[in-house]
Design a protein that fits this description.
Blueprint: E1 2-3, E2 8-14, H1 19-31, E3 38-43, H2 49-60, E4 65-70, E5 74-76, E6 79-81, E7 85-91, E8 95-103, H3 109-117, E9 127-134, H4 141-152, E10 158-162, E11 174-176, E12 179-181, E13 184-192, E14 196-201, E15 205-217, E16 220-224, E17 227-228, H5 229-236, H6 243-248, E18 254-260, E19 263-273, E20 278-281, E21 290-295, H7 298-314, E22 323-329, H8 330-338, H9 344-353, E23 359-364, E24 367-370, E25 377-378, E26 382-387
Parallel strand pairs: 3-4, 9-10, 22-23
Antiparallel strand pairs: 1-2, 2-7, 3-7, 4-11, 5-6, 5-23, 8-13, 9-13, 10-24, 11-12, 14-26, 15-16, 15-21, 16-17, 16-20, 18-19, 18-21, 19-20, 22-26, 24-25
Helix pairs in contact: 1-2, 3-4, 7-9
Length: about 400
């Protein structure tokens, strides 16, 4: 646990298979006998979620806001777990916490993002951030981010992640106070009298030359440089086979970098159509965008983790981090596993970059980070939120 006269932050983890025991153990460790204002719960969908949340509530007391998401793995200061629980707790007079959950409408997901962002109104703390915990299987997560941005504008940063359900891709769950939800977004309006820093990095690098998206619609790419998109990707990867075979080998996706002023945002391309010769992924790729094939080795991915943490801490006005929330893409985890070595090596890298400040988080199906501009959906990226 880290603390100062106005604010404290603690983390806890549990490997216990019993849901009540896991929730109680991780929450007690994170809270450390304090009176929490906010509890972040990240856990496997394999747990009995109502039972786990009830155990967290028993440790947290009646007044704490409890939010969270199911995962594709949990991470924290003690390491990486599958089927576990990772919890962060914060409190003290220096923090303000407000929460709201909203069902994501199929025809207008922007409305859900806008609704949860309304919690920021009237929050007058010196430093503010809106944390979004979103159903990872929703079809248009970028519109949820846009909806939130339409309310808070450029003055309030957005961070968060798209939840998962281990590797089932059936239903993800979100937590708001004592409710277990699905198909929803949870917004946490967090105010602090200390600085807040956000880091965004991935470690992937360009494979030249670039390509222009000459025809696309939403998440679907039909043409690159005027040719069928699948043909271009197969040729660039020197692969002679079907789309199914292409996306089944090694990591089951192809990273595609989109040019931004701050570098490249990553899009995950995970499927293709052999007849239509098109490809698609999990987030929109605008027509006319300049894109690159991307690559990374193990060290590059670890360097990306270090840079995300370093960037977040550098924005704390010279103060040491009290604690950190981490939203790490499950695709990065797959990339680290593909390149060999223990997954806890990334945890060691994060711990070192944070000078052993406590952290807790989850492996996501996508990450949210908007520090400037309306765009804010990322993939294959580590987003860190540091609190001083």
């Amino acid at each position: 646990m880290q603390t100062n006269p106005h604010r404290w932050f603690g983390v806890g983890q549990s490997h216990a298979p019993d849901s009540a025991k896991a929730g109680a153990e991780a929450a007690a460790e994170a809270i450390g006998g304090r009176d929490p204002k906010g509890i972040f719960v990240f856990c496997s969908v394999a747990h009995d979620l109502p039972v786990l949340l009830a155990a967290v509530r028993a440790e947290a007391g009646p007044d704490a806001a409890i939010v969270g998401s199911t995962t594709m793995g949990e991470l924290g200061s003690e390491g990486v777990t599958d089927g576990g629980v990772s919890i962060a707790a914060l409190g003290g007079d220096g923090f303000t916490v407000r929460t709201r959950a909203e069902r994501i409408g199929r025809t207008d997901p922007r409305a859900a993002g806008a609704a949860v962002a309304e919690q920021m109104h009237g929050l007058h703390d010196d430093h503010r951030v809106l944390i979004l915990l979103c159903d990872g299987l929703t079809s248009r997560p970028q519109d949820i981010v846009r909806g939130a941005y339409s309310v808070v504008g450029a003055t309030v940063p957005l961070v968060g992640g798209l939840g998962a359900d281990d590797r089932h891709f059936t239903a993800t769950y979100q937590f708001c106070d004592d409710q277990v939800l699905t198909g929803s977004v949870v917004g946490v309006a967090l105010g602090s009298d200390g600085p807040i820093g956000i880091g965004v990095a991935h470690g992937w690098r360009r494979i030249e030359p670039p390509m222009v998206v000459t025809k696309s619609h939403g998440t679907h790419i039909f043409q690159l440089d005027g040719e069928p998109a699948l043909d271009v990707l197969l040729r660039r990867r020197n692969f002679d086979g079907t789309a199914e075979e292409f996306f089944a080998r090694g990591m089951p996706f192809q990273p595609l970098g989109i040019a931004r002023r701050s570098g490249e945002d990553i899009r995950v391309i995970h499927a293709g159509d052999d007849e239509e010769r098109s490809v698609w992924g999990t987030a929109e790729v605008p027509q006319g965008a300049l894109v690159w094939m991307m690559e990374a080795d193990r060290q590059a991915l670890l360097d990306g983790a270090a840079w995300s943490c370093t960037e977040a801490v550098a924005r704390l006005d010279g103060l040491a981090p009290l604690g950190v929330l981490a939203f790490d893409c499950a695709g990065r985890r797959a990339g680290l596993a593909e390149n060999g070595g223990p997954l806890d090596e990334e945890v060691t890298t994060i711990r070192t970059a944070l000078s052993d400040a406590p952290f807790a988080g989850l492996y996501t199906l996508g990450e949210i980070a908007r520090v400037r501009g309306a765009l804010g959906l990322h993939h294959l990226t580590l987003v860190t939120l540091a609190l001083a």
